[in-house]
Structures are given as C-alpha cells and as structure tokens.
Task: structure prediction
Amino acid sequence: MKGSEVAVKTAVKILGLNAFHGDASAALLVDGQLAFALEEERLNRIKHWAGFPALAARACLAQGGPGPLEHVAISRDPRAHFWTKVGRLVTRPGDWRRSASRVKNTVDVARLGARLGEAGIANAEGVRVHFVEHHRAHLASAFFASPFDEAAVVSIDGFGDFSSVMWGVGRGNHIDVRGSVRFPHSLGQFYTAFTQLLGFPKYGDEYKMMGLSAYGTPRFAPQVRDVVRVEGDQVRLNLDYFIHHSTGVEMTWDGGEPVIGPIYSRKMVDVFGPAHPPRTTLEERHVDLAASVQLVLEECYFALLNAVYERTGLKKVCLAGGVALNCVANGMIFERTPFEDVYIQPASHDAGTSIGAALHVWHEVLKQPRGFVMRHVQYGPEYSDGEIEREIKSFGFDSSPLCESELIDQTARQLADGKIIGWFQGRMEFGPRALGGRSILADPRRKDMKDTLNRRIKLREPFRPFCPSILAEATGEYFETDYPSPFMVQAYKIKPHQRERIPAVTHEDGTGRLQTVERDVNPLYWSLLKRFGELSGVPILINTSFNENEPIVNTPAQAIDCFLRTNMDGLAIGSFLVLKSTASLEREAAEALQTVRL
Ligand SMILES: [Fe+2]
Result:
C-alpha cells in the first residue's frame, strides 16, 4: 500500500433467505445489524408465498448501501440428516414418488447459488452460499436477536430439515445445541392435525383453533393425551393417529400458497369424529375439542421447557419456531416454569429464519461478537410524505399535512369518538403482527367494537379476539403479569376489575394478547396511546393488522385502496389524516347491507 492510500473497510453484508418454504422472506444484515427484512407475500400479495423470494431479496439489496454482497444464508440444509433421508428413500420409495414436489423442493434449495445468478441477485462466483439447518436458524433468530448474553434457547415447530424441536445453550456469539426431536415426532404436527380436523385447512390456520379454544371445556383432554406425550426433552406422537410418516402427505402449491394435505389418520376420525367442513357452524364438541388440544399442547410445551430448564439451570429462555407463536401458552411461562426472563422472536414462524440464518453466519461462521438486539419489527419499506401526498391526491382526496402533535391529537380524538382509523406510519412490520406501522386502530372501551370491526372491515370468524396495544408503563395496572410483551406473542390475564373497562380486547378467557409500547422504540405510536389515554382514561387501543383478507398493506396506494373499499372512518398516513364524510360512510354501509342481502 502506498503511504497516501487509506484502507477503506467496507461493510459486511449477509442476505438471509427463507426460500422454497412457507412464508418465504429475505433479510439483510449489515455489519451484524438488521438493516432490512420483509416477507415476499407483502410484495407479490400472495399469502404465505412459498417460492423463491426474489422481490424481497432485491428490496433488501437496494437498501444495503455500497459494497458487494459477500454472503447468502438460507435456512435449509439439504445435507442435514442426509442418511436418514436416504434411508427413507430406500425403505419407503412411495413417499417420495407420491410427493415429487418434495424432491424438486430439495433440488431447488441445493442449487440456490445458480438461482441467485439467474435472478440477478448475486454472482455465484462472487458470493459464498451458506446452508443453515432450519432449526439452527430458528435458534439464532431468537438468541442472537435477544438482549441476553446467556440463555437457554428452544425452537419448536412442525418440521424443518427433519427435526421438530431443537434446544441448546446460547452464550455470547455461540449456541451449543444439546438436543433435538427428529421426524416423525412433532408437537407442531400434533396441533396442525387437529386444526385440520376442526375445519381450518389453510397453511398457518393454527391460530384460529387457539382463539376458539378459549370458548370450550377441555373434556376430551384424556383422549387427546393418547395422541402426544413428552418424555424428557423428547416429543412422542402416537403414530396411529397420523399418516405423515407412513402414506405420506401431499404438499402442493396453490398459486404460490402452500397447501398441506390432511396429516391425520382414520383412527383420528374414529376417536374424535369426522372432519368438520370448513366455514360451517361449529358445534359445542368442536369447541371443546379445541380447548382440549390447547390444554394438552400447553402440558407438552411446559414439560419441554421444564426439561430444558432442568438440564441448563439457566433462568433466561429464548424461543422460536411456529409453536412459539402460541401466545396463550407463552402468557403462562412464568407461572408454569422457573424461567424468569423470556425473549420470543417476533417472527417465530418460518419467515423469521431468514433473519436467523444471517445472524448464524455473522456469529457462528464469521465469529463476530454480539451487538444487535431486535426490539421492534419495523424493518420493511417506508414512504416519504411527498410520495404519500401524491397517492392521496391521485385518489381524489385533498388533504394538508399536519404537524406531529396535531396528527396525534386529531387521530386520538377520532378514536375516542368511536371512529375506526387506519394507521400507516414509518416502516412496514416484519412478521405476522401489525405493531404500529400498518395497523387498524379503534377504541377498546366499546363493547360492540369487536363486532363493528368484524362487520365493517375484517369479516373474520367471531371467536377470534382483537388485541390491545398499551403504554408499556401501564401494563401492571391492567394485566396480572407486568412483563414486556412488545411483539403481541404473549396473552396475559387482564385484571378482573379492568375487564369491563376494555371489553373489546378482553378475550373469552379473560386474557388479552397485548403489545407493550415503549417510548424509545416507537415514539409516535407511544404518543398516540398517551394522548388517547388522556382523552379516554385508558392508554390502550385495539390494534389489528391493516388488511382485508390479504397480506398486510405495504404501500400508500394499497393502504388507501383498503381504506376506500372497507368501512374505515379515517386514515392517518404519514403526516396526513384523511377522513371519510358521513354521507360516504352511510352509502358504503347501505351497499354492504345490500351485498349481504344478495
Ligand atoms: Fe420452522
């Protein structure tokens, strides 16, 4: 190097991918910091898209700044449990013939390098491709995103790379894997089988059965306990109730959306009754079955967590995997286990493995120290006031920008007056929950607001609860557990004397799946809650995702379109507050009524 030259250190970029798998996503890590992350469904508008997330990957790279992309990490490893897979292929060739798509899927993963080149995302020669075992990516997404230096780490899902559970100990920049549960045993598959039997056949429908369970009596728990049990750190299915290990399960892709065929056997039907047809009236026995399955899931979940506690002796735990989105179980962790601190990856489902795969490479492969904590989920695209104003005008609205205090005050007043407001602010959320970036907000004090929201906008099953956002500092005043729940993945019991004050977010079992909002994490949303609290006496808002039977809105145009085709009263978008006139709302309501009559 000549004396006048200065070595310029370029940032290390790692693109994480969850690809060829449900909830495909991409995440960009720059020098160990999460810079951008989003699910492909938000861009291509196909729910749970399971292909190659080319749009999301390109969006990540567009935000990454100068410098080359050096690493791509995918949360699948075709070499993981390779001989187990070969053994099944030899002993059960029918499994693979019946599901040719499974073979193609493995080939797709294995030739990722070529695919990156074809999609113009990275030059295969210039980038290092890392195959990260699915559950190691889940574990990394929880521990390396947490604020803990040392913790037990547990991942629980349906399956990924032939495992359904993995646990270990995280210390600094390393996770020491201590145990796993292998195919065909799976707590996630147990829950999915009953979800299918109860008439919720779509990928990701498990949360519907969880919502339903609050209305039932778990009178079938003894029979359900015959289906699954936990021994030590092992889940054991009674395989008589399943077919995924024997005749195999048909996996198809319906327009990009993954569809998993029934995984339960004839015996399941003989013992628990015939499958409930989707979208038909649920009987008491269906609701009681949901309650029984939820109860047994909780028993198994806590047996596993307690086994991990006994083997690690650590008081902190980090969780990921689809089963870790069971907010009812998560809300009881402190009651049912000795753990004293918990961090749950907000995107615990498979979308979060793109973040996990990238974090795994940064810490475990490149041996870099910790320096990132995921305290929020707003890692997606954002839009300037100029872009928003152009869209507003293109839809025919005439609106002027407000200063922040006016926007907060006027929006809070509308909400306190019973209005339903779309809230489009800052960057889009990553993961399944709207947490103050792309939300629909309403007043939780109004008993009829749940029905109103369902009738006017969300059109969803009446047994599903709406959830509260609350000022973090008010949590202990309203909830029996005073511990941060920033990602809406824990349901806490609402104090009995407060339930009547916030009936629209009090679920049948007296819980609320809350989001605690901290001032330094989301100051604008915190200010809105604060102002609403001053006006109403309750620093809580109903927060549901900004969408109508579609992926959460991403762009201003999608938000305005959703605002116009639903019966929302107003839209707080950037610095603008757009309100519908009473006349237009009455016309929409009349049209909706006419549609129902037809
Ligand atoms: Fe998974």
Remarks:
- The first strand starts at residue 13 and ends at 18.
- Residues 241 and 268 are 5 Å apart (CA to CA).
- The chain is about 35% helix and 20% strand.
